[in-house]
Amino acid sequence: MLLERDQELELLADLLAGVSSGGKVVLIRGEAGIGKSVLVKEFVDRHDDAAHVLIGFCDDLLTPQPLGPFWDISRDQPSLENLLKDGDRLGVMGGCLDLLTRSLRPTILVIEDTHWADEATLDAINT
């Protein structure tokens, strides 16, 4: 059970409800161990029946996999896999945009631990 996060969960739910008028970007930040990932997991669990959920993780490695979070997402979304294998960064970005706009249901895209993101992932996020 998540305690004392009702206000944050309500804010995220309100943002999700307003997605039909345009996409939203939410940055959840705070010190290590404060519960950012638990908050995101609780939000996703509450809304995964009404939205597509895509989750990728940035790795804490000296040489992280380029576009690592998108490789994670490609396990559930094979349309990205060939673009990633070909090293087609622009295609990956376009493929992600297609996933975000693919249906009447909204898509929640979560990229965890962006402070460890590689340059290509940062480029994709900033595009």
Low-confidence stretches: none
Strand adjacency order, main sheet: 1-2
Order of helices and strands: HHEHHHEH
The major pleated sheet works out as: 2 strands, parallel
Radius of gyration: 15 Å
Round the mean pLDDT to the nearest integer and report it. 89
Which structural class do you get from the secondary structure elements?
mainly alpha
Can you tell me the overall shape? globular
- The amount of helix comes to 40-55%
Total number of beta strands: 2
Question: How far is it from the N-terminal to the C-terminal residue, by CA?
Answer: 36 Å
What fraction strand? 5-15%
Tally of distinct domains: 1
Would you spell out the secondary-structure blueprint of this structure?
Blueprint: H1 6-17, H2 36-47, E1 52-57, H3 68-74, H4 81-85, H5 89-100, E2 107-112, H6 119-126
Parallel strand pairs: 1-2
Helix pairs in contact: 1-2
